[in-house]
């Protein structure tokens, strides 16, 4: 549940979204804390905010969340927020830049749970997600995640992005589940798509 102080911000964001001012709506939404932004996304579509419900992606069903991650709802949101906070601070520490200025790739994006939260930092035009499972990308599209989305190969030899396309890439709970051969293939394919001073973050169990 969102705290009361968030509602004036949401009213302004709803007004901007209703006027077709996407940039203005996100500018208001980024006045929220990251936690409150995550809670808002968890409740999409929201009956009180129809314009924002058209702007923001619908939250995946509890079944999809559990099937992809083993958890759902607030519990999963808290885990996701911890990762996003960590990579945001580390990106700034390592590069001296903020994520708001970065071009970002979610490698192995699944149903888009982290892509949704990345909208807090970066505009949709700066985000991309890819996954070798077509069903994952299908869910992202059906739920209204509007950034670039690509189905990639399980054993990639290249990525569908020009050289140096991204400043920040992350792979959350991807290489935990792949063989050494598949991991090396993915890293070799990703390397040309990241900028010379870009950063890759990955989790490994």
Brief summary:
The protein is of the alpha/beta class and 205 residues long.
Q: Roughly what fraction of the amino acids lie in strands? A: 5-15%
Largest sheet: 5 strands, parallel
Number of helices: 9
Instruction: Give the strand line-up of the largest sheet.
Output: 3-2-1-4-5
Low-confidence stretches: none
Residue share in helices?
40-55%
Radius of gyration, in angstroms, nearest whole number: 17 Å
pLDDT averaged residue by residue: 96
| Structure classification | alpha/beta
* N→C terminal distance: 32 Å
N-to-C order of helices and strands: HHHHHHEHEHEEHE
Kindly state the number of beta strands. 5
Instruction: State the shape.
Output: globular
Give structural attributes:
alpha/beta; 5-stranded parallel sheet; 9 helices; 205 residues; globular; 45% helix
Topology:
Layout lengths: L6 H12 L3 H8 L4 H9 L7 H6 L6 H8 L3 H23 L8 E4 L5 H6 L8 E5 L2 H9 L5 E4 L14 E6 L8 H11 L3 E9 L3
Parallel strand pairs: 1-2, 1-4, 2-3, 4-5
Helix pairs in contact: 1-2, 3-6
């Amino acid at each position: 549940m969102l705290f009361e102080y968030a509602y004036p911000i949401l009213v302004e964001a709803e007004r901007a979204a209703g006027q077709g001012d996407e940039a203005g709506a996100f500018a208001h939404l980024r006045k929220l804390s990251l936690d409150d932004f995550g809670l808002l996304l968890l409740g999409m579509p929201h009956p009180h905010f129809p314009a924002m419900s058209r702007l923001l992606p619908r939250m995946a069903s509890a079944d999809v969340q559990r099937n992809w991650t083993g958890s759902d709802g607030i519990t999963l949101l808290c885990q996701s927020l911890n990762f996003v906070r960590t990579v945001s601070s580390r990106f700034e520490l390592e590069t001296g830049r903020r994520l708001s200025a970065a071009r970002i790739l979610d490698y192995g994006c699944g149903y888009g749970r982290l892509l949704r939260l990345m909208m807090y930092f970066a505009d949709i035009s700066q985000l991309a997600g890819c996954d070798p499972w077509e069903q994952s990308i299908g869910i992202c599209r059906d739920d209204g995640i509007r950034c670039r989305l690509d189905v990639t190969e399980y054993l990639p030899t290249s990525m569908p992005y020009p050289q140096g396309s991204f400043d920040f890439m992350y792979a959350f709970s991807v290489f935990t589940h792949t063989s050494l051969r598949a991991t090396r293939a993915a890293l070799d394919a990703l390397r040309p798509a990241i900028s010379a001073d870009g950063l890759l973050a990955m989790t490994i169990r």
